[in-house]
Amino acid sequence: MPTEYGQKKRYRIFINPYHACAFTKCPRCVNKTNVRKFPLVVHVKPKQMILLNMECKYCTHCDLIIVRQITLDKHVNSILQQFIPSLVGNEYVVFGTVDRKVWRNSRKESLDSSDMINHVYVFEDKLEFVPAG
Fold first, then answer.
1. Tens digit of pLDDT for each residue in 10-50?
2. I need a surface site. Which of 9, 38, 104, 132 has the fewest CB within 10 A?
3. How confident is the model at residue 117 (pLDDT cuts 50, 70, 90)?
4. Binning pLDDT at 50, 70 and 90, where does residue 116 land?
């Protein structure tokens, strides 16, 4: 089902803030998670979009992507440090994914924000979990 801006929805996301918990099992259904790369779309305030091809845990049963917060922070800051140092430390939001083909093409020729929006699949839901124990 498209959003108000026309993007389709795909996947759920959980940004894991826990350093000691790797979520090798899905916190939702307890099935084993797999490692998979996803081209994540990140909006950095005030007006910057970046694509990160990140290795994440993934539950195929729940369609849930689990991203470690610390790894995400490092990737975002590394990209910003390299290309837009003035935005390092700014707030950011991971709001969707793009098809792998779009990510590969963006490596050859840059997409501006309006072009990228046309290719984004926003997350169906952003989930939060507390580890047992």
1. 999 999 999 999 899 999 999 999 999 999 999 999 989 99
2. 132
3. confident
4. confident
Q: Which two tokens stand for residue 105?
A: 């093409």
Q: Yes or no: say if 18 and 24 are a contact pair by the CB < 8 Å rule.
A: no
Gap between the Cα atoms of 65 and 55, Å rounded: 10
Write down the pLDDT at residue 5: 54
Helix ranges (DSSP H) in 29-127: 69-83, 100-108, 113-117
Phi, psi at 33, each rounded to 5°: -90, 155
Query: Smallest Cα–Cα separation from 58: which of 30, 36, 39, 41?
Result: 36
* DSSP β-ladder status, 64-68 and 48-59: antiparallel
Q: In what order do the strands lie in the sheet with 34-44?
A: 8-9, 121-122, 92-97, 34-44, 48-59, 64-68, 12-16, 125-127
**Who's near 52: CB < 8 A, 6+ residues apart?**
39, 40, 42, 72, 75, 76, 79
What's at 16, amino acid-wise? N
- Tell me if the pTM is above 0.85: yes
Query: Which residues face 57 on adjacent strands?
Result: 35, 66
